[in-house]
Amino acid sequence: MLILAIFLTNCSGVKQLSIFKEEVKRQELNLEKPTPLQLEQIKWIIITSENAAEVFKKMEEQGLDPVLFGLTDNDYQLIAKNFAQIRNQLKITNDILDKYKEYYEPKEEVKE
Amino acid sequence: MLSFRLFFIGLLISAVIGAGAYVMKLQRDNVILKENAVKLEGAISEQKQVIENQKKDFAEILEANKKINELVNNLKKDLDDLDKRFSKKDRDIGKLAIERTGAIERVINKGSDNATRCIEIASGSPLTEEEKNATKKSEINPECPSIANPSYIPY
């Protein structure tokens, strides 16, 4: 009877609750942002049927090869728009990268 | 008769010991239950903190999306402005270049310099004080005022 009583009282006990917590902070990527571009300035020369001879003469006087790589006025507009689109894409990509960094790798005082 | 008494006494002792053991077990269970309750309260508090953090994260995500959308719209406006400059009032830049070659060449070279600076800014180059403080049309970079001149409000 004694054994039975001890046996019964120890079998169906309340189990101690265990909560496991393990928070290991992920290493920050910390890639350096690319150095901002420093572009060379280019000079556009407008050449028409009237000033062509004068332009080539000036170029020779300045010691430049008398050759020009040309665009029509329409293509000039297109290249200007293309560069504007590339610039916009670069800006958006850069800003998105900054936002990701701010979100996933905030400064400690901000996150706390 | 004696054996019956002995059996009865044994039964009584067993019952008392069993009851004692059961009470002790209840006491142990009670201690564990109290500990569990404390742990659960702690877990609830942590969960509340997690929910608060999630709310903050959602707010941050919304804000970041808003900022990026604003940027996209502003850059689109810059692009539309460039398009308008080429075609404003049936402007034909080719004809203008034939008529006023020198002046258009200067305008185009100035525009090219401004556009070059815009690309530098877009790639992360910090703004100069002049760019930051520009508020007048004559002071801004007309190729990309939305990113080059944060103080400028179009008028």
N-to-C SSE series of chain A? HHHH
| Amino-to-carboxy terminus distance of chain B | 117 Å
* Derived structural class of chain A: mainly alpha
Total strand segments of chain B = 0
Proportion of β residues of chain B? under 5%
Largest interface comes to: A-B, 51 and 62 residues
Q: What does the average pLDDT of chain B come to? A: 93
**Rg value of chain A:** 36 Å
Oligomer: heterodimer
Annotation field: number of helices of chain B = 5
Structure commentary:
- The complex is a heterodimer of chains A (112) and B (155).
- Chain A has a domain at 71-112.
- Chain A has helices at 2-11, 52-61, 73-104, 108-111.
- Helix content of chain A is 50%, strand content 0%.
- The model of chain A has no long low-confidence stretch (mean pLDDT 85).
- Chain A has four helices and no strands.
- Chain A has 112 residues and is mainly α.
- Chain B has 155 residues and is an all-alpha fold.
- Chain B folds into two domains: 8-88; 92-155, no CATH class.
- In chain B, 80% of the residues lie in helices and 0% in strands.
- Chain B contains five helices and no strands.
- Chain B has helices at 2-87, 93-99, 101-122, 129-133, 145-148.
- The longest helix of chain B is centred in the N-terminal third of the chain and has 86 residues, at 2-87.
- Chain B is rod-shaped.
- At the A-B interface, helix 1 and helix 3 of A face helix 1, helix 2 and helix 3 of B.
